[in-house]
Description:
The protein is mainly alpha-helical. The chain is built from 7 helices and no strands. It has helices at residues 4-22, 29-50, 60-83, 92-122, 127-151, 154-172, 178-201. The protein starts with a helix and ends in a 6-residue tail after the last helix.
Amino acid sequence: MASPGTLSSDLAYVRDLAEAGQNAPLLGGRFLVMWGGLVSLAYAGHFLIATGAFGLAPSALWMLWVTMGVVGGAGQFLLVSALRGKPGGASTGNRVQSVLWSTAGIFLFVYFAGLMARVLFTGEGIEGFYWSVPMVLGLYGIGQFVTGAMTGSSALKFAGIAAFAGVLAATFLTGTEYIWLVGAGSAFTAVFIPGLLMMRAEPSETV
């Protein structure tokens, strides 16, 4: 039978392991970098095409967003495959981040699928793309702020607040082409940069 001292040491060891697992580094930085970068570029490209900077027809916007979707989908698959089974993925912070962003992704897919179907079949609803910007930024803000609150990360909570500031500006500018610049700047500030910081915080070997 173990002595009280040995039992206490064993319990302390188990507690330390549990706390280490709960405080495991967030592994979603690479996803934030990829999507933050892609969305920033796509919004900036949309602004340039819509304002005639490249002399392209409006139909080029479809090619821009379809390309972004294909590249993003392929990148998502590759990143998920690379992270499968990586230590630390079961920590509270990583599970919260995974569920939040996966749910946001499903919501956005459904929204844009319905919106594109409306535009293609009725020729109406183009304003839905403008309103999507504050909506997307709002989802970014929720994802970042909630993850930051759950993990105690002030940087992620600040990123969430920055995204909410982008919602304010984007809502004010809805209907103008400047909304795309707000989207680009907000995605870069609230998603891409925090993703880089998260990747830098990962140790070479996550334990």
